[in-house]
Specification:
Largest sheet: 6 strands, mixed
Helix content: 25-40%
Bound molecules: adenosine-5'-triphosphate, magnesium ion
Strand content: 25-35%
Radius of gyration: 21 Å
Number of strands: 14
Strand order of the largest sheet: 6-7-8-3-9-10
C-alpha cells in the first residue's frame, strides 16, 4: 500500500503555500512537523481533495486519487483542522451521519461506532448535542469520525489541539494502535505527539520539505549541537541572547539550560546532550 505524492504545489497568486512536495508513504505513522503557515493543512486538504492543487499528483497504489473519486473517499479518514461541527446533532447522530456519507450500512456502522466511542472515551455522551461539547470532546468526536469504516489512509490535522494531557496521551496511544497496516499522517507542532509513534517525520518549512526520515536519523543530524549549560539567575539572560534555548530546568542550586549551538558554548559549564525531536524543531524552526 503506497500513497505517492509528486510535485504537489499550491499557489495563491504569487504566494506559494506548498512547493513541489514529493514523498512516498507506506503503512505507518508519519509526523508532519512545521510551524504555523508551513503548509501542513494545505497539503492535507489537497490529499483529501478539499482543495485543488496548482500542480502535481496524488496516487494511491498507482492510481490517481482524483480518478478514484468515491473509491478513494471510502478508504480515507480525515480530521480537518477547521471543522464545522453540527451543533444540533447528538454525537450518535453525527457519527451515523458521517458513516452514511462514507457509504456504510447501518448494522456495520453500529458496531464500528460503539467501538470507536469507547476508544475515544465518549461512550457516555452519545445522546448529548455536539453544541454542548467541550473543545476536547469535539476533538475526540472528530477523531472518531475519521476512523469510521476502518480507513486505510488516515489524515489528522492537529488531532490533539486543545486536549488535556490525559486525553492527549490517550489519543496518541490510540493512533499508535490503529496504525497497523494503515497510512496515518499527522500534522502537528507538538513534538511529543509524534516523537515515539512516528515511523518517519517530515519537516515542513515555508511549503517545502527541509528534512525527513526516521526520528533518530533526523536527530543524529544535529548530533554534537545540543548542550546543557549549568547557569544561574544572572547568566540566564545572556545565554538566552546567545543561543537557541530549549528546556530550562532547575534544582535548589542551579538552573540547567538546554541550548542548540553549532559550537560548544565555550566559557560556560556545560555538557553534551543527545538530541531529541524538540531540539530538531528548535534547530530548524526557531
Ligand atoms: N485561501 C488562501 N489564500 C491565500 N493564502 C492562503 C490561503 N490559505 C492558506 N494560505 C497561506 O498558505 C500558507 C500555508 O497555510 P497552511 O494553513 O497550510 O499552514 P499550516 O502549516 O497548516 O499552519 P498552522 O500550523 O497554523 O495550521 C500560509 O501562509 C497561509 O497564510
Ligand atoms: Mg494547519
Amino acid at each position: 500500500m503506497t500513497l505517492t505524492i509528486k510535485n504537489l504545489t499550491k499557489q495563491y497568486g504569487e504566494f506559494t503555500a506548498l512547493k513541489d512536495f514529493t514523498y512516498e508513504f507506506t503503512a505507518g505513522v508519519y509526523g508532519l512537523l512545521g510551524p504555523n503557515g508551513a503548509g501542513k493543512s494545505t497539503l492535507m486538504n489537497i490529499i483529501t481533495d478539499n482543495l485543488k492543487a496548482t500542480k502535481g499528483e496524488v496516487k494511491f497504489d498507482g492510481v490517481s486519487t482524483t480518478e478514484m473519486g468515491a473509491d478513494f473517499r471510502k478508504i480515507l479518514g480525515f480530521m480537518p483542522q477547521q471543522q464545522g461541527i453540527y451543533p444540533n446533532f447528538t454525537l450518535e447522530r453525527f457519527l451515523y451521519y458521517m458513516a452514511a456519507l462514507k457509504g456504510m450500512k447501518k448494522a456495520e456502522a453500529k458496531a464500528d461506532i460503539d467501538r470507536l466511542l469507547r476508544l475515544v472515551n465518549l461512550q457516555d455522551s452519545t445522546s448529548k448535542r455536539l453544541g454542548g461539547f467541550s473543545g476536547g470532546m469535539k476533538q475526540r468526536a472528530l477523531i472518531a469520525q475519521a476512523m469510521l469504516g476502518d480507513p486505510k489512509v488516515i489524515i489528522l490535522d492537529e488531532p490533539t489541539a486543545g486536549l488535556d494531557p490525559k486525553e492527549r496521551i490517550r489519543i496518541r496511544n490510540l493512533i499508535a494502535e490503529i496504525a497497523f497496516e494503515k497510512i496515518v499522517i499527522i500534522a502537528t507542532h507538538v513534538v511529543s505527539d509524534i516523537e515515539f509513534i512516528a515511523k518517519e517525520v517530515l519537516l515542513l518549512k515555508k511549503g517545502e520539505i527541509i528534512g525527513s526520515g526516521k526520528p533518530h536519523e533526523l536527530c543524529e543530524k544535529i548530533g554534537g549541537k545540543v548542550f546543557e549549560i549549568k547557569a544561574n539567575e544572572e547568566s540566564l539572560a545572556e545565554i538566552s541572547s546567545k543561543f537557541k534555548v530549549g528546556n530550562i530546568s532547575k534544582d535548589e542550586k542551579n538552573i540547567y539550560v538546554r541550548v542548540i549551538s553549532e559550537d560548544p558554548p565555550a566559557g560556560y559549564d556545560f555538557k553534551s546532550c543527545k538530541p531529541d525531536l524538540e531540539d530538531l524543531y528548535l534547530y530548524y524552526f526557531d
